[in-house]
Design goal:
single chain, 7-stranded parallel sheet, Rossmann fold, 11% strand
């Protein structure tokens, strides 16, 4: 085909994608039904993982909860089972030919930073529960230390949980999705995977890596024509009470980049998943911020950060992160002992 003609056809296709995108903004697309589908959620013991588990339970999906903390994971399971019980009661009380809610909650103890555990747990899930339909990678940690003060073990753990774990879960579950040409992969990243700020170098690097992995995998699925497997990238700003609790930006600019309420954030995320939206940024102002990052000179970005109070916004959350008794930020006693051992070895040298 003549290159000029081909270019014109490509231009028409690009224009059509803009039309479709505009239509999604004007007309709310219908949400797909996930009742009876199996949804694996990592980091389900707290934060956004727990909130997503509750929302999918309300829609009748079977949720498979992964977390490193057995106690908090079981708490999430109990919340989910109460939701199932309420759903069953409401369905049985209504007239008409309505499907019976038969969803269940399964809990698995898994450290997603260890690929052997991920593969073993994934095998258990597929044997005990069945082939999964939705994979949500939401497990995340943050060290809460400045780079030069952060133990190497914490830096490595941040990269393993926030980025490398996505490789292991994908390799464990996607082969069956490819075979069936059916499934949905959700990457819970962060606005700090699109932008960056001081004091969280390890976290930013891990989330940039997760986004790069997600986007490359999206292109891979398109290249092999597996259109039945959908992908959604989640880039949320600060969520009240979640991983960066205590982080603040300039008060006068906060209405444009305010902390999100957990219920507000999760509703937007679930809607994006159920409408096969490829990417969701919350709040919407993050789309503009991400675009400006690609066109503005670095010094201009620094000026904007200083104006917004975003240049040192993470400093306010440092003390909270170090003191927080949260499974997303706290090391196990074994890992703490290992850090102390390494420290003593260095002093001995």
């Amino acid at each position: 085909m003549n290159i000029v003609v081909e270019f014109c056809l490509v231009s028409c296709k690009v224009f059509w994608t803009f039309v479709l995108a505009g239509t999604r903004w004007l007309m709310r697309p219908k949400e797909k039904n996930v009742m009876g589908q199996i949804c694996v959620i990592t980091g389900a013991g707290s934060g956004l993982g727990r909130d997503l588990a509750k929302e999918f339970a309300r829609r009748g999906a079977t949720v498979v909860l992964w977390d490193i903390n057995r106690e908090t994971n079981e708490e999430t399971a109990e919340i989910v089972r109460k939701i199932y019980s309420e759903l069953t009661g409401s369905v049985s009380g209504e007239a008409g030919d309505l499907p019976t809610i038969q969803a269940q909650a399964y809990t698995y103890l898994c450290d997603v930073s260890k690929r052997e555990e991920v593969y073993l747990t994934a095998d258990k899930v597929q044997c005990e529960v069945g082939n999964i339909d939705i994979l949500i990678n939401s497990a995340g940690v943050v060290s809460g230390h400045h780079l030069l003060e952060c133990p190497d073990e914490l830096l490595e753990r941040t990269m393993m949980v926030n980025c490398h774990a996505h490789f292991w879960t994908t390799k464990a579950f996607v082969p069956k999705m490819l075979q069936l040409n059916h499934g949905h992969i959700v990457t819970v990243a962060s606005s700090l995977g699109l932008l960056r700020t001081a004091g969280v170098e390890d976290y930013c690097a891990s989330k940039f890596g997760a986004i790069g992995f997600h986007e490359s995998l999206s292109h891979e699925l398109k290249a092999i024509e597996k259109d039945g497997i959908k992908m959604t990238l989640v880039c949320a700003f600060l969520v009240d009470g979640h991983i960066f609790n205590g982080c603040k930006i300039r008060k006068k600019t906060s209405p444009f980049f305010h902390q999100l309420k957990p219920e507000q954030c999760v509703q937007q995320v679930v809607r994006a998943i159920l409408t096969d939206q490829s990417m969701i940024c919350t709040p919407r102002s993050m789309y503009m911020a991400s675009f400006m990052k690609t066109v503005l000179p670095f010094e201009a970005i620094v000026c904007m950060y200083q104006f917004l109070g975003a240049d040192k916004c993470m400093y306010h959350s440092k003390a909270h992160q170090i003191k927080a008794n949260n499974n997303e930020t706290e090391l196990t006693s074994v890992q703490q002992a290992r850090i102390q051992q390494v420290s003593l070895e260095k002093k001995g040298c």
